[in-house]
Design goal:
The strands form ten sheets. The chain has an eight-stranded parallel beta barrel. Strands 2-3-6-5-4-7-8 form a seven-stranded mixed barrel. It is globular. It contains 21 helices and 41 strands. By secondary structure, it is α+β, with helices and mostly antiparallel strands. Belongs to the glycosyl hydrolase 13 family. InterPro entries: GH (IPR017853), GH13_cat_dom (IPR006047), Glyco_hydro_13_N (IPR004193), Glyco_hydro_b (IPR013780), Ig-like_fold (IPR013783), Ig_E-set (IPR014756), Pullul_strch_C (IPR024561), Pullulanase_N2 (IPR040671). This is Alpha-1,6-glucosidase domain-containing protein. Keywords: Glycosidase, Hydrolase.
């Protein structure tokens, strides 16, 4: 009989989330050896010819001690191991290449069958002498064995709760658990109504039970009895990793059939989605935080401000603004994390009382940071449950059904506005691991879901506790989760946080899964940064910038971003004054400028690389006069061009990370730059982004000169430093020194800028930038030449004028050939971007005798920027273009 067959619900209702059933505080925890599969082990750093014999000691209770120079005590028994120098199977050799050389050991064939049971307790690998004295000892990392033993679990399609009219099933993968039981609750905060045993499936390692009737609307947790290295045998009360919704603050999982009418907003089944895009390069993305969208929008009803339902208020300033962007050519709204996150209290969050204070005062940030851990704001890059909508954006987080309906109502409203919905997902880390309360995965299968270092400690290169999607069931969780969002919540595209920490082959599997789930192509983009314990393919072929060629998955490009803005994303102190192409590098120096003409020429080359889609094989003439592919153009020791196709690159000049574009320019522009010119420089950067081949990505508020009062990392800076003003009245620059934790060392540089009233824009300047951005979207939308489909298209149809060592480096001139190209709209198109504060005249021999006229958007009544129509000029006899100061202008042959 199962030990949970009784009706004891004490563990379901206990205040403690974990109970130690049998302590093992002195047990070894260093895990330097690896299970390669169910019968093969490897101990890196221990040579095959080292003296001694090897034994694998086991204990059901975790009582083993194995100190050097003593004999092993507390074990229930031991298995003899034999050195094995046979070549590894190629798949194992590739998977474990990163662990380093060491003795390889085999279990006797008869002992291999004991491994599943032994993995449910303590295992210690020991090298000992003939008398049994310990020479060395370690525990083992077991994902290799679990993946070998339980590969069949990857086919399970009913993990989590699956209610139906014929009964409700519950299934959780817990192969190392000694026992698992199900706690049932009738509501979100009452005592458990039952505790029921679950049965183990030896083929998959999953535990399950099935109850009569449809239990939709009930709540549940699991009690998992499991051995935890360094702690002992523990009973963990834990929510379901496959939860589709939860109670407030994620205390209990919610039973739900996502196809049930009760979980759908009115009209959900009938509201059409925007049509799939013809190509990834048609994507024009707007990155937006749910709370930012409406928290300070007074045209939204009080109850909905900061919530999902704000998107359903069609007459609000925010929704009017989004519709105007959509009408101009915006295709996607990408939402910062909206899965269940750990850092915002879903019940009882507070809003700081920020006093009026000077523009450069520390007072505002002090008030914000005093309550930051309890306030209602966070970016949300701290996943708690991957498959459930976040509750702090719902009107009632305590009701698991409400957050599902209201999340869908938001998606439905955006779709009705003609906008596809993208979702920022964070599968590369969890908010906690080990025995911490918010550690969901690691308290069910300790040591499996997280990526470990050479000693078995959780790696944290992503900022938090890294996950290991190279392990089968963590990879499956990511695939299943993305498919759920695509199918049941109609998510159209995904942006993967730190995607370079995922294996390429898993991301390619995910692409197939989400396409199947949605019944259409779902676009995938992500951060392809190459760093940490997986850098340079150390553990697998990464989903990184230099490893995704040909995959069709897009990565963010830092090449043009850094060239346009200047400096790097992580700059602090004096480095923040380093200028870039758009804000004065060499040609309009600030007080800190030391840049040479050669640096300006190289920056211009990098900007052209971005305009050419960062394509590795696009050939250009560089500043030296050499004709080279972009893969040979240098970007900080890396190839400037890396993409195989334009749809594999995401172009951007700002996003939620680091200072906003306006704030960057506050550092970099000369101090005497006028307000009008600050707005123009903002538009220049946005224009270079809009004209670039590839996927266009914009940060919410960039078109409104959005400022975060110079904050370089506003993830936990509260509403105060993350405000958006859809009325285009205020950009919130100079609302206090930004929070100390990430900015204090730069306060001496920041304070004089914040105190300078000449930097803060007027409402007129904000409105100009907004309207100019809308015109840029209209220009991009007017022709497929700005969004060419293939690398061959770009190579054949895009050419740059004014290149090489004799160029005028402050003017970028790119020409696109529209002859016979579907959707081109024009025979030819030529854009000129003059970043100089002075007008420029550029002669282009190839333009002589041709019929170039201003783009229709420039000629339209009410065009935002009057300069192109008033002062730009083209002389066909000479091929000379007059380009106004700090202006982007587009000519066409119709």
């Amino acid at each position: 009989m199962s030990p949970t067959a009784g009706l004891d619900t004490a563990g379901c209702n206990a205040d403690a989330f974990a109970t130690t059933l049998q302590a093992a505080p002195d047990a070894p925890t260093d895990a330097s050896a690896y299970w390669l599969d169910r019968g093969l082990l490897q101990w890196p750093g221990v040579a095959a010819d080292d003296t001694g014999t090897y034994r694998l000691y086991h204990s059901a209770t975790g009582a083993i001690t194995a100190g050097p120079g003593a004999t092993v005590t507390g074990a229930d028994g031991a298995l003899a191991l034999s050195p094995n120098d046979s070549p590894l199977a190629p798949t194992l050799a590739a998977r474990f290449d990163f662990i380093g050389d060491g003795v390889r050991l085999s279990l006797a064939p008869g002992d291999v069958t004991r491994v599943p049971a032994l993995l449910r307790g303590q295992l210690v690998l020991v090298r000992e002498d003939a008398e049994g004295t310990v020479l060395a000892a370690t525990t083992l990392q077991h994902p290799g064995a679990l993946d070998d033993l339980y590969a069949a679990a990857t086919a399970l399609d009913d993990l989590g709760a699956t209610p139906g009219s014929d009964g409700t099933g519950f299934r959780v993968w817990a192969p190392t658990a000694r026992d698992v039981s199900l706690c049932l609750y009738d509501d979100g905060d009452g005592a458990a109504s039952a505790r029921l045993p679950m049965q183990r499936d030896d083929a998959t390692g999953a535990w399950s039970t099935r109850l009569p009737g449809d239990r939709s609307g009930d709540y549940y947790t699991y009690l998992v009895d499991v051995f935890v290295p360094g702690t002992g045998v523990v009973r963990n009360r834990v929510t379901d990793p496959y939860s589709v919704s939860l109670t407030a603050d994620s205390k209990r999982s919610y039973v739900a059939d996502l196809d049930a009418p009760a979980l759908k907003p009115a009209g959900w089944d009938d509201t059409p989605r925007p049509a799939p895009l013809a190509a990834p390069t048609d994507m024009v993305i707007y990155e937006l935080h749910v709370r930012d969208f409406s928290r300070d929008d007074t045209t939204v009803t009080d109850a909905n401000r900061g919530k999902y339902l704000a998107f359903t208020e069609t007459r609000s300033d925010g929704m009017r603004h989004l519709r105007s962007l959509a009408d101009a050519g915006l295709t996607d709204v990408h939402l910062l994390p909206v899965f269940d996150l750990a850092t915002v209290p879903e019940s009882g969050c507070i809003e700081p009382d920020v006093p009026e204070a000077a523009a450069d005062s520390q007072t505002q940030q002090a008030a914000v940071m005093a309550v930051a851990a309890r306030d209602c704001f966070n970016w949300g890059y701290d996943p708690y449950h991957f498959n459930a909508p976040e509750g702090s954006f719902a009107s009632n987080a305590a009701d698991g059904g409400v957050r599902v309906r209201e999340f869908r109502a938001m998606v439905q409203a955006l779709h009705a506005a003609g906008l596809r919905v993208g979702m920022d997902v964070v599968y590369n880390h969890t908010t906690a691991s080990g025995q911490l309360e918010r550690s969901v995965l690691d308290r069910i299968v300790p040591g499996y879901y997280q990526r470990l270092d050479a000693h078995g400690k959780v790696t944290t290169s992503t900022c938090c506790d890294n996950t290991a999607t190279e392990h089968l069931m963590m990879g499956k969780l990511m695939l299943d989760s993305a498919a759920l969002w695509a199918e049941h919540h109609r998510i159209d595209s995904f942006r993967f946080d730190l995607m370079g920490h995922q294996p390429r082959h898993v991301m390619e599997q995910l692409q197939q899964r989400v396409n199947e789930a949605a019944g259409r192509h779902v676009n995938l983009i992500g951060e392809g940064w190459n760093f940490g314990e997986v850098a340079d393919g150390a553990r697998f072929v990464q989903a990184s910038q230099l490893s995704l060629q040909g995959s069709g998955i897009g990565t963010f490009s830092d090449r043009a971003r850094d060239a346009i803005r200047g400096g790097g994303a992580g700059d602090k102190g004096a480095a923040m004054f380093t200028q870039g192409y758009a804000n004065g590098l060499h040609y309009a120096p600030n007080a800190h400028d030391t840049a040479s003409r050669a640096e300006l020429l190289h920056a211009a080359d990098l900007v052209r690389a971005g305009l050419a889609g960062t394509l590795a094989e696009y050939v250009t003439t560089d500043a030296s006069g050499a004709t080279i592919p972009l893969s040979r153009l240098d970007y900080k020791g890396q190839p400037a061009g890396y993409a195989a196709q334009p749809g594999e690159v995401v172009n951007y000049v700002e996003n939620h990370d680091n200072q906003t574009l306006f704030d960057v320019n506050a550092f970099k522009l000369p101090a005497d730059t006028s307000r009008d010119d600050r707005a123009r420089v903002q538009v220049l950067a946005l224009a270079l982004n809009a004209f670039s081949q590839g996927i266009a990505y914009f940060h919410a508020g960039g078109e409104l000169l959005r400022s975060k009062s110079l904050d370089r990392n506003s993830f936990d800076s509260g509403d105060w430093f993350n405000r958006l003003d859809w009325s285009a009245t205020d950009n919130h620059f100079g609302t206090g020194l930004p929070p100390a934790p990430d900015n204090r060392e730069s306060w001496p540089q920041m304070a004089p800028l914040l105190a300078d009233p000449s930097i803060k824009p007027t409402a007129r300047g904000i409105a100009f930038t907004r309207d100019a951005f809308l015109d840029l979207l209209r220009i991009r939308d007017s022709s497929t030449l700005f969004r060419l489909r293939t690398a061959d298209d770009v190579k054949r149809r895009l050419r740059f004028h004014n290149t090489g060592p004799a160029q005028n480096p402050v003017v970028i001139a790119g020409e696109l050939d529209g002859g016979g190209y579907p959707g081109a709209g024009f025979e030819a198109l030529l854009y000129l971007v003059n970043v100089s504060p002075e007008p420029q005249v550029l002669g282009i021999d190839a333009a002589r005798g041709r019929r170039f006229v201003l783009h229709p958007v420039h000629r339209a009544a009410g065009a935002a920027d009057p300069r192109p129509l008033e002062t730009a000029a083209f002389d066909p006899a000479t091929g000379h273009f007059a380009v106004p100061a700090r202006t982007a202008v587009v000519y066409v042959i119709e």
